[in-house]
Amino acid sequence: MQKLTGKVALVTGGNSGIGLTTAKYLVAEGAYVFITGRRQAELDQAVEAIGKNVTGIQNDVSNLADLDRLFSIIQQEKGKLDIVFANAGVGEFVPLGSITEKHFDETFNINVKGLLFTVQKALPLLSEGASIILNASVASITGIPALSVYSATKAAVRSFARTWILDLKEHQIRVNVVSPGVVPTPSYYRLGLTDEHFPVSAIPLGRVGTTNDIAKAVVFLASDDSSFVNGIELFVDGGMAQI
Ligand code: NAD
User: How far is residue 25 from each of residues 4, 53, 62, 69, measured CA to CA in Å?
Assistant: First the structure.
């Protein structure tokens, strides 16, 4: 039996990597999914790859007018949202001493401001019992050389869930955080990451993660299988952040 029949979901950054795989899993479980991304060509490819029950909307999460347009389209097309996977995010290796204002502003604008306003502007559409899943990272609780700004954004994301479960309790809306470990995706390769940065030997399960590993955890948090799970940070990292 499908777990998300009749549900409407939003996946920001759903045209690539973890977001794209998760959108496929949500559709496979019966949901209708809206995906966003900044680049139209990638978005079109993603919509084709997902195949059915999906709408792609070109959107920059750090632009509040873009977010208003996104939610007005969802309102017109479906009139509600049951699942929000706030996944869009960026990161760059910049050691302390070389951090620029541009690097700080861009990273916080997308990962923190963009995520916050995605969730806030989704609220009027959220159904009773909706599930919000925030994508953070093992970087929320660990030190990684030259990744301080990104890590601080992910600590902020983790923190949001703690307060938002209180702010939203009247509506029975759950908010949880998924924190991936090392998952080779387009952004992973763009950063020039190799086994030297995150040796597999540092991961107790002895392998890097796949986007499927993360998508399965998001489906769990989105569905009734996690009906009493609220405010947690679910590490999907092969044990990396626990040692
Ligand atoms: P990715 O580059 O494949 O995907 C990132 C997505 O975010 C893309 O769809 C991109 O279009 C979107 N995006 C970026 N800036 C945006 C903006 N301003 N507006 C709208 N969309 C925007 O990378 P990924 O690895 O799948 O990353 C997805 C999330 O997972 C990020 O939040 C990232 O921090 C987090 N994460 C990834 C890893 C990993 O190892 N891959 C580990 C921990 C956390």
Answer: 10, 12, 26, 26
Q: Is the CB of 238 under 6 A from ligand 1?
A: no
Give the nearest ligand 1 atom to 13 CA: 9
How many residues can be counted in the chain?
Answer: 243
Please give the chain's pLDDT, 243 residues, in tens.
899 999 999 999 999 999 999 999 999 999 999 999 999 999 999 999 999 999 999 999 999 999 999 999 999 999 999 999 999 999 999 999 999 999 999 999 999 999 999 999 999 999 999 999 999 999 999 999 999 999 999 999 999 999 999 999 999 999 999 999 999 998 888 877 777 777 899 999 999 999 999 999 999 999 999 999 999 999 999 999 999
Tell me the CA–centroid distance for residue 170 and ligand 1, in Å: 31
- The two beta strands, 174-180 and 81-86, are unpaired
Query: Which one of 32, 150, 188, 189 is the catalytic residue?
Result: 150
